[in-house]
Amino acid sequence: MANYEVSPELLNARVPKGTSLDFNEGKCFVSLVGFMFLDTRVLGIPIPFHINFEEVNLRFYVKRETGTETRRGVVFVKEIVPRYAIATVARLFYGEPYECWRMSHTRSEK
User: Fold this and answer.
1) Do 62 and 73 touch, CB atoms closer than 8 A?
2) Predicted structure pTM score
3) Beta bridge partners of 30
4) Per DSSP, which regions of the chain are E strands?
5) Tens digit of pLDDT for each residue in 19-68?
6) How far from 76 is each of 29, 45, 49, 68, CA to CA, in Å?
7) In the chain, what are the domain boundaries?
8) Side-chain half-sphere CA neighbours of 64 within 13 A
9) How far is Cα 86 from Cα 55, in angstroms, rounded to an integer?
Protein backbone atom coordinates (compact mmCIF):
# COMPACT_ATOMS: atom_id res chain seq x y z
CA MET A 1 0.00 0.00 0.00
CA ALA A 2 1.26 3.46 -0.88
CA ASN A 3 -0.52 6.67 0.09
CA TYR A 4 -0.10 9.95 -1.78
CA GLU A 5 -1.30 13.39 -0.81
CA VAL A 6 -3.20 15.06 -3.65
CA SER A 7 -5.06 18.29 -4.24
CA PRO A 8 -8.78 17.79 -3.47
CA GLU A 9 -9.61 19.50 -6.78
CA LEU A 10 -8.27 16.43 -8.61
CA LEU A 11 -10.99 14.26 -7.03
CA ASN A 12 -14.02 16.55 -6.65
CA ALA A 13 -15.64 15.42 -9.92
CA ARG A 14 -15.43 11.76 -8.79
CA VAL A 15 -17.02 12.20 -5.35
CA PRO A 16 -20.36 10.33 -5.28
CA LYS A 17 -23.51 12.32 -4.57
CA GLY A 18 -24.28 12.50 -0.85
CA THR A 19 -20.66 12.06 0.20
CA SER A 20 -17.66 14.34 0.67
CA LEU A 21 -13.93 13.82 0.62
CA ASP A 22 -12.58 12.31 3.83
CA PHE A 23 -9.49 14.20 4.92
CA ASN A 24 -6.83 12.85 7.27
CA GLU A 25 -5.35 15.59 9.43
CA GLY A 26 -6.50 18.14 6.85
CA LYS A 27 -4.89 16.30 3.93
CA CYS A 28 -6.50 14.50 1.00
CA PHE A 29 -5.01 11.13 0.05
CA VAL A 30 -5.21 8.55 -2.71
CA SER A 31 -3.92 5.02 -2.15
CA LEU A 32 -2.35 2.51 -4.49
CA VAL A 33 -3.12 -0.93 -3.05
CA GLY A 34 -1.83 -4.28 -4.25
CA PHE A 35 -3.01 -7.64 -2.99
CA MET A 36 -3.61 -11.28 -3.91
CA PHE A 37 -6.88 -13.11 -4.28
CA LEU A 38 -6.26 -16.69 -3.14
CA ASP A 39 -8.52 -19.74 -3.50
CA THR A 40 -11.18 -17.60 -5.18
CA ARG A 41 -14.52 -19.23 -5.89
CA VAL A 42 -17.79 -18.18 -7.50
CA LEU A 43 -20.82 -19.56 -5.65
CA GLY A 44 -18.42 -22.00 -3.97
CA ILE A 45 -16.99 -23.26 -7.27
CA PRO A 46 -13.36 -22.62 -8.27
CA ILE A 47 -13.04 -21.32 -11.85
CA PRO A 48 -9.93 -22.77 -13.57
CA PHE A 49 -7.16 -20.17 -14.16
CA HIS A 50 -9.09 -17.66 -12.01
CA ILE A 51 -8.41 -19.01 -8.51
CA ASN A 52 -5.26 -17.10 -7.52
CA PHE A 53 -4.56 -13.68 -9.04
CA GLU A 54 -3.18 -10.24 -8.32
CA GLU A 55 -5.13 -7.01 -8.09
CA VAL A 56 -3.94 -3.42 -7.88
CA ASN A 57 -6.34 -0.57 -7.26
CA LEU A 58 -6.22 3.18 -7.03
CA ARG A 59 -8.69 4.59 -4.52
CA PHE A 60 -9.61 7.62 -2.49
CA TYR A 61 -11.65 8.10 0.64
CA VAL A 62 -15.07 9.63 1.24
CA LYS A 63 -17.46 10.07 4.13
CA ARG A 64 -21.17 10.57 4.62
CA GLU A 65 -22.66 12.38 7.59
CA THR A 66 -25.92 10.77 8.75
CA GLY A 67 -27.26 12.59 11.80
CA THR A 68 -24.75 11.90 14.57
CA GLU A 69 -22.89 9.19 12.65
CA THR A 70 -20.05 9.49 10.14
CA ARG A 71 -19.84 6.64 7.65
CA ARG A 72 -16.60 6.17 5.74
CA GLY A 73 -16.00 4.54 2.38
CA VAL A 74 -13.70 4.27 -0.61
CA VAL A 75 -14.13 5.21 -4.25
CA PHE A 76 -12.20 3.16 -6.78
CA VAL A 77 -10.60 5.15 -9.59
CA LYS A 78 -9.20 2.04 -11.27
CA GLU A 79 -8.95 -1.65 -10.44
CA ILE A 80 -6.48 -3.77 -12.37
CA VAL A 81 -6.41 -7.56 -12.65
CA PRO A 82 -4.53 -9.94 -14.98
CA ARG A 83 -7.59 -11.86 -16.21
CA TYR A 84 -9.88 -10.52 -18.91
CA ALA A 85 -12.92 -12.48 -17.65
CA ILE A 86 -12.61 -11.03 -14.14
CA ALA A 87 -12.33 -7.47 -15.43
CA THR A 88 -15.27 -7.93 -17.80
CA VAL A 89 -17.61 -9.45 -15.19
CA ALA A 90 -16.73 -6.76 -12.63
CA ARG A 91 -17.38 -3.98 -15.15
CA LEU A 92 -20.61 -5.41 -16.58
CA PHE A 93 -22.29 -6.79 -13.46
CA TYR A 94 -20.97 -4.49 -10.74
CA GLY A 95 -20.12 -1.28 -12.61
CA GLU A 96 -16.59 -1.32 -11.21
CA PRO A 97 -13.74 0.40 -13.11
CA TYR A 98 -11.78 -2.80 -13.80
CA GLU A 99 -9.16 -3.23 -16.50
CA CYS A 100 -7.09 -6.20 -17.56
CA TRP A 101 -3.32 -5.69 -17.59
CA ARG A 102 -0.46 -8.16 -17.73
CA MET A 103 0.79 -8.65 -14.15
CA SER A 104 3.20 -10.77 -12.16
CA HIS A 105 4.58 -10.82 -8.66
CA THR A 106 7.26 -12.39 -6.52
CA ARG A 107 7.19 -13.14 -2.84
CA SER A 108 10.19 -13.02 -0.56
CA GLU A 109 10.48 -14.32 3.01
CA LYS A 110 13.04 -11.70 4.13
Assistant:
1) yes
2) 0.85
3) 4, 60
4) 2-6, 20-21, 28-37, 53-66, 69-81, 98-100
5) 999 999 999 999 999 999 999 888 898 888 889 999 999 999 999 999 89
6) 13, 27, 25, 26
7) 2-76
8) 10
9) 10
